[in-house]
Write a structure and sequence with these properties.
It contains eleven helices and twelve strands. Helix 5 crosses helix 10 and helix 6 runs parallel beside helix 7. By secondary structure, it is an alpha/beta fold. The model has no long low-confidence stretch (mean pLDDT 95). Helices cover 40% and strands 20% of the residues. A six-stranded mixed beta sheet has the order 2-1-3-5-6-4, with helices on both faces. A six-stranded parallel beta sheet has the order 9-8-7-10-11-12, with helices on both faces. 47% of the residues are buried. The radius of gyration is 19 Å and the shape is globular. It catalyses: L-quinate + NAD(+) = 3-dehydroquinate + NADH + H(+); shikimate + NAD(+) = 3-dehydroshikimate + NADH + H(+); shikimate + NADP(+) = 3-dehydroshikimate + NADPH + H(+). This is Shikimate dehydrogenase (NADP(+)).
Length: 287
């Protein structure tokens, strides 16, 4: 189906900094074309200082919806007019829908991640998860995993400014779900090794290993990993991270960040349009 921008074309977009590397425009614009929907998806490089005025502009433009990426996810939680239950619990927003100027914040990172696990044949129910990081994406993933029946989540984070975030996340999970959550120092290799030995899932939700520093890994070497472990990295640039290569060397099943990107994007698409994204042609073309 031919895709043309008209005088009636609705706008959807991605806000954050940086955003030039994103493949979300390819995915969403192809979905709009396949379904014959008169929308376009663009990227705008917006920092935290510019964000409030950018939101005023999006309201004035009657934008249908938008995604937020770093560093805007937690700030959008504060600026939204309404929050979905998941976004309120997570404390971060990555998807916003505009209903006549009323901005409702959602978080599709968690649901997208769980769908990517299911697509790989893995169920989180009754499993032990080692999670690296405690930022916006990590929080969404952890909370959704807990809500979907994870037995235990061990959160590893550096003792930096985000250490309090990790403690708060663990307390929130333990208080509101049936999952037990604990926090450990990411720079304690003995604790990390011990956690991984009894885990079925390792999820890297830090930026360690992201281009241009793709030679780095949050796990020191392959000896920390075992064949019964699914190793998941939410980074998608590069498509194959150093952590993923170490996991393959250890005989682990691996899952890259493109799968999460696809499924969280599909949920955002559904929120904006009320239609299901045609996943298979998009997966074959871009993933």
């Amino acid at each position: 189906m031919e895709f043309q921008i008209t005088g009636r074309t609705g706008l959807t977009c991605l806000l954050g900094s940086p955003v030039a590397h994103s493949i979300s425009p390819l995915m969403h614009n192809e979905a709009f074309r396949l379904l014959g929907l008169d929308y376009v998806y663009l990227c705008f490089d917006v920092n935290e200082k510019q964000f409030p005025s950018a939101l005023d502009g999006l309201r004035a433009f009657h934008v249908r919806g938008f995604n937020c990426t770093m560093p805007l996810k937690t700030e959008m939680c504060r600026l939204a007019d309404r929050l979905s239950p998941a976004a309120r619990l997570i404390g971060a927003v990555n998807t916003v829908v505009n209903d006549d100027g009323l901005l409702t914040g959602h978080n599709t990172d968690g649901t997208g991640y769980i769908r990517s696990l299911a697509d790989a044949g893995f169920s989180i129910k009754d499993k032990t998860m080692t999670l690296l990081g405690a930022g916006g994406a990590a929080s969404a993933i952890a909370i959704q995993a807990a809500l979907d029946g994870a037995a235990q989540i061990r959160i590893f984070n550096r003792r930096s400014r985000s250490w309090s975030n990790a403690l708060s996340l663990a307390e929130k999970i333990s208080r509101n779900t049936g999952c037990r959550a604990e926090v450990f120092d990411l720079e304690d290799p003995a604790a990390l090794r011990g956690s991984l030995e009894s885990s079925q899932l390792l999820t890297n939700a830090t930026s360690v290993g992201m281009a241009p520093n793709a030679d780095r890994s949050p796990v020191p070497d392959a000896s920390f990993l075992h064949r019964g472990l699914l190793v998941s990295d939410i980074i998608y640039n590069p498509r194959e991270t150093r952590l993923m290569r170490l996991a393959m060397d250890a005989g682990c099943q691996v899952l890259g960040g493109l799968s999460l990107l696809l499924y969280q994007g599909a949920e955002a698409f559904r929120i904006w349009t009320g239609q299901d994204m045609p996943l298979e042609p998009i997966r074959q073309k871009y993933f």
